[in-house]
TrEMBL record:
Gene3D superfamilies: Vaccinia Virus protein VP39. Residues 1-71 form the PABS domain. This is PABS domain-containing protein. Belongs to the spermidine/spermine synthase family. It comes from Magallana gigas (Pacific oyster). The keyword Transferase applies. GO terms for biological process: spermine biosynthetic process. The active site is at D58 (proton acceptor). GO terms for molecular function: spermine synthase activity. Keywords: Polyamine biosynthesis, Transferase.
Length: 71
């Protein structure tokens, strides 16, 4: 079970002092929250020339597997 969406909802509700109203909407003028495979998303961004200011990834979710994702 992926809990990412539930964690975001819980933080939005119970951690207002930390995140303010940023998590009320998943997309704003200068941000977009995506729940996806970060490595694949970044590979697609690199190929298309898309750039991000910040990327937040749950590093404890998986180990990076060079056989699966490459260098």
């Amino acid at each position: 079970m992926k809990i990412d969406e539930e964690v975001i909802k819980a933080c939005s509700k119970h951690m207002k002092k930390v995140c303010g109203d940023t998590l009320e909407k998943w997309e704003g003028a200068n941000y977009k929250i995506k729940i996806c495979d970060c490595i694949l998303e970044l590979k697609e961004a690199l190929a298309s020339g898309t750039k991000y200011d910040y990327v937040i990834n749950d590093l404890t979710e998986f180990s990076v597997d060079k056989d699966k994702y490459g260098e």
